[in-house]
Write a structure and sequence with these properties.
The chain is α/β, with parallel strands linked by helices and about 375 residues long. The chain contains twelve helices and nine strands. The protein has a nine-stranded mixed β-sheet, with helices on both faces. The chain is globular, with a radius of gyration of 19 Å.
Length: about 375
């Protein structure tokens, strides 16, 4: 519920109550787990460090993990994340793994969900998934948690991270985990989960990916940016995206951003979304209407980069559930409906779930009953 409250704050401004929630969620992990991380080189999905994490849901055991992955160019990177397993013996054949891809929390190392003192609030549907018997694993994405290249809305990197998190769960849990994998993501995490599904057969064919479910996914990035850039939320998210694409692809910021936006970018990217909204919005608000010098959909190289990081240019090779809140003001329902229709036309097995009254912050929770039924039908193991 905390994630829903905080996400709503992105759209509605920050009340005193929400500022209190920000302070609560922003309390940092203070241990040494992330210090002096090992080398990134090695087998993707290999666990290189773990520690028991306190305060998890009753009836489950939780660990912080560091594991190896690769970026969009195939270079080795290190990822951090969380792994949770229900207590008690695993079923015959091992537990199915749910690999969770989180919505935007920022792009700085400190903004990683696993670095929170309470990392469990960031995994939407966690208790229900554990009660269903699934092992649940999450990646913070490359560049968050521990040092690495920026991966914000870089689809190939995020998708590899999501798949390598599933590999890491199998590596860590051994015979208690099966090869069966279900992908689940919200917003930025919806984009990540979709890229993971697209990459699966080439990148991690030893996994048995059964299905992917996404809530309010970031799909058509150019139209998403165009629709949202006129308010403080759009400027905040765009600051992460342009900074990431400039770093990863070498795209020149002065070809799309105003001098004032370029000057503000380092400060904005030092703040975490949700947990530091007040400070982030203080910087972003004066840039509304003064952020861009052109249309990213038609200005190169940004148009090409946004298209390359938009999921769905081919059929998704597993059944897909797409949930969308009809009161979402950040990811527009029309864009998500168009994505679902395009995937149907490409031959994907799509279930589209429009949810009346759901906002961007509440859609994942409201979609959860349908997601659990969808997963249970396609997993077929009982968890």
């Amino acid at each position: 519920m905390l994630v829903a409250v905080l996400t709503a704050a992105v759209l509605a401004g920050c009340s005193q109550e929400v500022r209190g929630e920000e302070d609560l969620a922003a309390r940092p992990y203070t241990g040494a787990f992330y210090d002096d991380p090992p080398a990134a080189a090695g087998k993707p999905g290999e666990i290189v460090r773990s520690e028991l994490a306190p305060g998890g849901p009753f009836g489950a055991t939780a660990w912080r993990i560091l594991f190896r992955s690769t970026d969009l160019s195939g270079n080795p990177v290190l990822n951090s994340g969380m792994l949770l397993e229900p207590d008690g013996p695993a079923p015959d054949g091992g537990r199915t793994i749910v690999s969770w891809a989180h919505p935007t929390t920022g792009s700085a190392e400190k903004c990683a969900p696993s670095r929170s003192v309470d990392p469990y609030v960031w995994i939407e549907g966690l208790k229900a998934l554990l009660d269903q018997g699934y092992a649940v694993v999450s990646t913070d994405y490359t560049g968050m948690g521990v040092d690495g290249p920026n991966s914000y809305l870089v689809g190939d990197t995020e998708g590899r991270n999501v798949l390598d998190a599933a590999r890491a769960a199998r590596d860590f849990l051994g015979s208690a985990a099966s090869e069966r994998v279900l992908l689940w993501g919200h917003s930025q995490g919806g984009q990540a989960a979709l890229f993971a599904a697209q990459l699966w057969t080439q990148y991690a064919p030893e996994l048995d990916v059964r299905a992917v479910a996404v809530a309010a996914p970031a799909t058509d990035l150019a139209s998403l940016m165009r629709a949202d850039i006129g308010d403080v939320s759009g400027v905040s998210i765009a600051s992460y995206a342009f900074d990431a694409y400039s770093e990863v692809y070498g795209a020149p910021l002065d070809s799309i951003l105003t001098p004032a936006a370029i000057a503000a970018l380092p400060t904005m990217n030092g703040y975490c979304l949700l947990t530091q909204n007040s400070a982030l919005h203080d910087v972003a608000q004066p840039l509304v209407g003064r952020f861009l010098t052109g249309d990213p959909e038609t200005t190169e190289p940004w148009a090409t980069l946004l298209a390359a990081n938009t999921p769905g240019d081919s059929a998704i090779p597993v059944p897909l559930l797409v949930a969308q809140g009809l009161s979402d003001k950040l990811v527009r329902p029309s864009a998500t409906a168009a994505f679902a229709d395009e995937q149907k036309q490409r031959g994907t097995d799509v279930v589209y779930d429009p949810i009346p009254g759901a906002t961007h912050g509440t859609v994942a929770d409201k979609a959860l009953p349908a997601v659990l039924r969808f997963f249970d039908r396609l997993d077929g193991s009982g968890g």
